[in-house]
Amino acid sequence: MSVFSHSAYDKHEQVAFFQDAKSGLKAIIAVHNTNLGPSLGGCRMWPYVDDGEALNDVLRLSRGMTYKSAMAGLRLGGGKSVIIGDPRQDKTPELLRAMGEFINTLSGRYITAEDSGTSVADMQVIGETTEYVSGLFAGSEYGGDPSPSTAYGVFVGLKAAAQHRWGKTDLSGLKVSIQGMGNVGFRLGKLLKEAGAELFVTDIFQDNIDRSVNELGAIAVTADEIFDLDVDLFAPCAMGAILNDDTIARLKVGAIAGAANNQLAEECHAAVLREKGILYAPDYVINAGGIIDVYYQQRGDYDAAEVRAHIEEIGNTMQEVFERADNTGETTAHVADRIAEERFGHHSVPSAENKSGTVAA
Ligand code: NAD
Fold this sequence. Notes:
Helices cover about 40% and strands about 15% of the residues. It is of the alpha/beta class and about 350 residues long. Strands 1, 2, 3, 4, 5 and 6 form a 6-stranded mixed β-sheet that branches. A 6-stranded parallel β-sheet has the order 9-8-7-10-11-12, with helices on both faces. Bound molecules: nicotinamide-adenine-dinucleotide (NAD). Nicotinamide-adenine-dinucleotide binds near residues 147, 179, 181, 185 and 261.
């Protein structure tokens, strides 16, 4: 298994491997870039089929965090951690405490938070052995959970997309399909319903569908039908790589704006969307509400109004991306990457002062 010559390795500053025989912890932390500040990113626990899959995930995800935080205007770098194991079977307080000790060995260059397979409660346990943990601040608007802020940011970005695509500032009557009615998708659905949009939803769990039909008046479709609907806008809020050759050929929407990470199966799919006249809101720009929330939690002076105002900036950033793409003929995904790279200085050497774990304003 290679690291420096790995296809997902992108000048990562540090990749650390850890195992603790007593608790059974096997984990990897990747610090992609700390030019703008200490790296912050979630801790994912997943039953990876092998070490190679875990390394690939942590390298890709940590890089994504650098771009996301830079675009969100945060003094943060990009990092991520993965624990190899099944969160339903292998997660124990001992394992999480050992994870905290692993995080300490990076002396604050990496700060963790919740992600797939970990929760606010897990962050509290990790917090018993490390101070470099966020997303557990009980005084934050939602008790540490970043999902409502992510949903709000997606709503703001979606409005920017609707305005750019159709000149509409009012969402009433807009037909929106949502894939995945989980933590973010359901809350996004609620905000859209309040704004007068018509909802078409799918999930792989019937109770999530039932809740959306009963509480939001949504129309339920199967997991496969979601790509064929005659609607205005598609909001992917389930998993990655769902914008691929097959699905893009089927989509009839005018815009895509959703929470899922890594929506494009491959870079080239941004151009395929553009050719089809579908406006794409780059995923890491529109789904930054959660990291913005976690940033303020970590900073220690959480103010709900300030957090909300910062999340609303996603609308302006999105507008800037759309306009620059129109002017240059590039894809929105490409434009977002270039703006992020301008901000974090992709090719410069990180300065020592940005490597401590204290998040500066
Ligand atoms: P979640 O697990 O709560 O919800 C995901 C939902 O998608 C689940 O209800 C699941 O049943 C459903 N789903 C999975 N596969 C599906 C399929 N093939 N078809 C239809 N539904 C399917 O996760 P979440 O926290 O709501 O996050 C949703 C997405 O947004 C993820 O891609 C996540 O990485 C991304 N994201 C989340 C946050 C956050 O703050 N939670 C922040 C940034 C990005």
